[in-house]
Design goal:
Layout: E1 22-26, E2 32-35, H1 37-43, H2 47-50, H3 55-59, H4 65-78, E3 81-88, E4 94-105, E5 111-119, H5 120-138, E6 143-147, E7 153-156, H6 158-164, H7 182-198, E8 202-208, E9 220-229, E10 235-244, H8 246-264, H9 271-282, E11 289-295, H10 296-299, E12 313-320, E13 335-336, H11 343-350, E14 354-356, E15 377-385, E16 388-397, H12 406-443, E17 454-461, E18 470-478, E19 484-494, H13 495-514, H14 519-539, E20 551-559, E21 564-570, E22 576-578, E23 584-585, E24 604-608, E25 614-618, H15 630-641, H16 648-659, E26 668-675, E27 683-688, H17 694-709, H18 715-732, E28 737-743, E29 746-753, H19 773-780, E30 783-789, E31 792-800
Helix pairs in contact: 8-9, 8-12, 9-12, 12-13, 13-14, 15-16, 17-18, 18-19
Length: 806
């Protein structure tokens, strides 16, 4: 059957191969002139039975003759035919066969027809398999390489040739190392050898695949491989499938970097820390070196100006794969000015990103001199929030060989956009915190002048979540008669609102202290004030979510002459008193209602304190914790303040260390006071009868006492003051008059009487016989005033001692 090779494949797996195909030869009239052994076996008809007979009548059922006629017509017209026909086998059944009909030219110009057939199912599967194999090498988008056992390349498809930038024929007989850089080729060959040795397939393993023609270009591929074996299990080689996943890897890396940046940038409300987090996020994932420069006003926490792009910037963060030289223009905190034509200058001025894939021969701009050598590519992106430029981030590459691309610019812009919001938030927080702290500094006392009644130490700790301010306060207020008022208060809430309310209450306390009111009367007036503040809040229409105005307060007055402590509290924790011997007690002091409830009474109580007693006043944030109740906190406070042998400052710090967590949830104010007593020889007290001789007697006693104290220089003025005050007392008050002189940093004169009527200054007319005494007293004394008690009133004056100046 000459010519059969033109359409009968020699591949033994091909169902149309000579060994497997059913074949026959037909003459021009359709009679069978040739019949293969395979045809006898498959169709069940011997050559003797079929030779010379018409094939159509023998092998095709009458109902299928139309299909045969069409096939014959196609053969005569096209010179051949391929298709499927049902054929009758020896047992009378019909089977579908795929047929191929080709002409055979005989000597003498006779044309016969060679017919080859195979069961239709086998032929169809073979065609599919052949098409798949051909497609893998001609049309598949995934790279395919077939290697011999020695890993030489037998064949590659077009897709892999495209990845390598070569023609498929060029790879035959070569090795992987002829196309890839040595390190990447060694990695791939080692894995292929493992597949050859173990038979274990390699599935989607990513690995670098840099070409020798482009060694600086990043390329990653996903490789799958399997071992090839023949029917007897002999190893024929290894086949690998290669997919370029560089873009997918970059996208995954970009998403991972953005995800990490989302959690790693803006962890604090600190501008410098946020800038450092931004630079750290960019290295080494995007760049080899990153710097963040913020406009000077932004670095200080101030609002940036719309046209501030040309102003100076402060280097706020710097990160690199290798440390940069310590140059003055590079160090963190340095103030720079970028030239207008520099990439950073253009970025700051326009608010647009700048990409320079290749830096010119001039190298980095002056402000970035000293970067590691080899910096060859630059990206500058603006840090923009609310339409304002806050600064810029500069990214350099020196170790990574590939230059920056548009994708890198997009990624850097996304990082900068996320960080800019955090930086702006941190800047605004810094500004608000600075304002709040300035307010707090103005509202709280800084240092207290030395006082003869007490030595003090104090601490103030705002709540951990507040902007450095709160509603707790303390005060030490000098009073007449060498006495001192010790005050601790706590306004409900935290932050600016609580601090503002605290400032109003503290001012009110000072005003009330100047009136020398009793502690319970002071709290009554404060209660009225808090009630009015609550009414103002309600009148302003503040919603129910706003904090209700309320406060607690402890107001105590200590007299170093009598050693008496008179105190009252409004819903506040009780004071702690430590005796000189170390005994600790909580004075019996009625709790009283918190300020702002209105109309409820407050009670004061007196306690005698030995000289050197320690008095601790505090707010509930010190003793009320998350892991213990108030009683337990007070007990811990008592144990801490009772430890002997420490200064007031040491004790105050130890109290905080022992009772407070690192970030307290409530504001804390602590005031420690160690009591002092005036020596008896520095105090002189007399009781005078309310009679006409009382003024002269007072002058005599005063002159004698001043002489004993060595204050003769003050005798004249003091006698005049005492004479006027005693005269007014016996003339208008009636009853006994008490005269007391106190000598400490000032000379104090006190005249007490049982009347509650306060004297008033008035300007006497020229025709008046009296009314000038109190005016004379006011002119001679440094300070004067009146304080009331349940038994009457006391008029007092203060004079500076010779050689002393306040």
């Amino acid at each position: 059957m000459t010519g059969s090779a033109t359409f009968m494949n020699e591949n033994p797996e091909d169902p149309f191969s000579p060994r497997r195909a059913v074949s026959a030869v037909l003459d021009p009239h359709g009679r069978i002139t040739g019949w293969s052994e395979r045809a006898e076996a498959v169709l069940g008809r011997s050559a003797r039975e079929v030779l010379g007979r018409v094939a159509a009548g023998l092998l095709v059922a009458p109902e299928d003759r139309t299909a045969v006629d069409e096939a014959v017509a196609a053969c005569r017209k096209q010179g051949g035919w391929s298709g499927v026909l049902p054929l009758r086998v020896g047992d009378g059944r019909t089977r579908r066969f795929a047929l191929r009909v080709r002409p055979l030219e005989r000597s003498g110009g006779l044309t016969e027809w060679l017919v080859a057939g195979a069961p239709a199912a086998e032929a169809g599967q073979w065609e599919i398999d052949r098409s798949v194999v051909d497609g893998l090498f001609s049309r598949s988008p995934i790279g395919l390489a077939v290697h011999a056992p020695d890993l030489s390349i037998l064949r590659i498809n077009r897709a892999l040739a495209g990845i390598g930038g070569i023609r498929a024929e060029e790879a035959r007989g070569a090795r992987i190392g002829d196309f890839l850089v040595a390190g990447d080729a060694e990695t791939i060959e080692a894995r292929l050898r493992q597949v050859l040795e173990t038979g274990e397939p390699l599935i989607f393993t990513e690995q670098p695949c840099r070409l020798l023609t482009e060694p600086s270009r990043e390329r990653l591929v996903a490789v799958s491989a399997f071992r090839m074996e023949d029917a007897d299990g002999r190893v024929l080689g290894v086949t690998q499938l290669v997919e370029d996943v560089t873009d997918r890897h970059r996208a995954r890396r970009r998403l991972a970097l953005l995800s990490a940046a989302g959690t790693g940038i803006g962890t604090t409300l600190d501008v410098a820390t946020t800038a450092d987090e931004l630079a750290s996020a960019a290295v080494p994932g995007v760049a080899d070196h990153a710097s963040v420069d913020l406009l000077e006003q932004v670095s200080r926490g101030e609002e940036p100006v719309a046209d501030g792009g040309g102003g100076p910037v402060r280097r706020t963060a710097l990160h690199g794969v290798r440390p940069a030289p310590d140059r003055s223009a590079l160090r963190i905190g340095a103030l720079n000015t970028f030239p207008p034509d520099s990439p950073q200058g253009r970025c700051l001025a326009t608010g647009r990103a700048v990409l320079e894939p290749v830096v010119g021969a001039s190298g980095p701009p002056a402000a970035d001199r000293g970067l590691p050598r080899g910096a060859h590519s630059l990206v500058v992106v603006p840090l923009t929030a609310r339409g304002l430029v806050l600064g810029c981030m500069s990214l350099w590459r020196s170790r990574l060989p590939e230059p920056f691309e548009e994708d890198d610019l997009t990624l850097a812009g996304e990082l900068a956009a996320r960080a800019a919001v955090s930086i702006d938030n941190a800047r605004r927080f810094t500004q608000q915190r600075r304002t709040a702290r300035a307010l707090q500094r103005r509202l709280l006392p800084r240092e207290f002048p030395a006082h003869p009644a007490v030595a003090v130490a104090h601490r103030y700790v705002p709540a951990g979540g507040a902007a450095g301010v709160g509603g707790d306060w303390f005060d030490v207020i000098p009073l007449s008669g060498a006495r001192v008022a010790l005050v601790v208060g706590d306004v409900v809430g935290h932050g600016i609102d609580a601090a503002a309310t605290m400032g109003r209450l503290r001012t009110a306390v000072h005003t009330l202290a100047d009136l020398d009111l009793e502690p319970d009367e002071v709290l009554s007036h404060l209660d009225d004030l808090v009630t009015r503040l609550a009414g103002e809040q309600e009148a302003d229409g503040e919603g129910p979510g706003e904090e209700v105005v309320g406060a607690t307060c402890l107001y105590a007055v200590y007299d170093p002459v009598t050693r008496q402590l008179c105190a009252a509290r409004a819903g506040h924790p009780p004071p702690v008193v430590v005796a000189p011997g170390g005994a600790v007690e909580l004075p019996e002091l009625p709790a009283g209602p918190p300020l702002g409830l209105g109309g409820l009474p407050f009670e004061a109580a007196e306690t005698a304190l030995p000289e050197g007693s320690l008095l601790a006043l505090y707010t509930n944030g010190l003793v009320d914790g998350d892991h213990h109740d108030v009683d337990d906190g007070i007990a811990r406070l008592c144990r801490t303040v009772a430890r002997p042998g420490r200064s007031l400052e040491q004790t105050a710090q130890e109290v905080l260390d022992a009772l407070l967590p690192a970030r307290p949830s409530d504001d804390v104010a602590l005031l420690l006071a160690r009591t002092r007593t005036l020596a008896p020889e520095l105090v002189a007290t007399w009781e005078l009868a309310a009679e006409a001789t009382a003024p002269s007697r007072a002058r005599q006693l005063t002159a004698e006492r001043l002489a004993a104290w060595g204050l003769e220089e003050l005798a004249f003025t003091t006698e005049l003051i005492v004479s006027e005050l005693v005269t007014n007392a016996y003339r208008y008050a009636g009853g006994p008059v008490t005269l007391r002189l106190i000598h400490h940093h000032r000379l104090i004169c006190e005249v007490g009487d049982p009347s509650s009527t306060s004297p008033h200054l008035r300007r006497a007319r020229t025709t008046d016989e009296g009314g000038r005494g109190l005016l004379l007293v006011a002119q001679l004394a440094e300070r004067w005033g009146t304080r009331h008690s349940r038994g009457g009133k006391t008029v007092w004056t203060e004079q500076l001692l010779p050689g002393h100046r306040d």
